[in-house]
Amino acid sequence: MIPDFFIRQAMELLSPAGKRARLSVFIFHRVLPKPDPLFPDEPDTEQFDRIVSWITNWFEVIPLDAAVDALKTAKLPARAAVITFDDGYADNCTVAMPILLKHKVSATFFIATGYLDGGRMWNDTITESLRQFPDGKLDLSTLGLGCHKTGSDEEKRQAIGAIIGQAKYLPPATRTEVTEEVARLTGAELPTDLMMTSGQVRKMRAAGMQIGAHTVTHPILAQTGLAVARDEITRSKAHLEQLLEEPVTLFAYPNGKPVDDYLPEHAGLIREAGFKTAVSTAWGSADVGTDLFQIPRYTPWQKTRLKFALQLIRNLASRRPTSCP
């Protein structure tokens, strides 16, 4: 087994302190209480505990706002890293936060405010509908979503991926109608406790976590008009500021791929709204020349220690473009 010392040295060569520093930003969505066959890529409690242990052994984990300030002034520490979560799932508070506190680190949680207090994201409507579907075949051809085998967990997982992939870029209103029809056709009784409550958001902030905005209803901004995008951005900020009674200056683009999911004009809207930085889901690491409204992030999916470390080293070594031109 390669000692942590040598992994840290490799990270430091690629991410020294000061002007040549590079910032690694991790992105997660959920931490499950136990493994779920429909979410094989989401870490459970034990796996997330291992991941945070690796990160804290190899990196200097700092809050996102402090990292951005240090990046602007070329004062970022060596091996700097930030941990972030998107969407606002309840397990962020009940499962992820205790592990973060155990390791004495904070994270930034980007909240889609329209789903607080009993809401449910459209993709979870699809997932939970298929989870409960008892038959071996689901015909959604009348919705333009094809016909899918659902007899096993693997078939359900493939069906969920295919349906979500087809529905993702539909206009928001159409997407909502389609997903609600999927729920009706499957006869599912859908959960109302997947997302955080307002009280949980306040609890996380009181525990030292950072809270950022992620729009109201998680639309693909590139597929909406600018007026709608502005409304989604500003209302999510206002909601969180009222809830927390403090400024909210951090933002994450829904879905987050440059060009496909957001455009340069959306970065302009975020500046106008009073945010100080925004993060994407483009892979790579940030340096002093990175647009602070297009900070790259990546999801560390490898499950073994060595593969996890090699993935992080490759990401730090990457110099490919990660932002909208």
CATH level 1 name of the largest domain: Alpha Beta
- The N- to C-terminal Cα distance equals 42 Å
Q: Describe the biggest sheet?
A: 5 strands, parallel
Radius of gyration: 20 Å
Mean pLDDT: 95
Find the structural class using helix and strand composition: alpha/beta
Strand content: 5-15%
As for the number of domains, it is: 2
Tell me roughly what share of residues is in helical segments: 40-55%
Order of helices and strands: HEHEHEHEHEEHHHEHEHEH
* Model regions low in confidence, pLDDT < 50 over at least 5 residues: none
CATH topology of the largest domain: TIM Barrel
Q: CATH superfamily of the largest domain, please?
A: Glycoside hydrolase/deacetylase
* Overall geometric form: globular
What is the number of helical segments per DSSP (H or I, 4+ residues)?
Answer: 11
Assigned CATH architecture of the largest domain: Alpha-Beta Barrel
Question: How many distinct beta strands?
Answer: 9
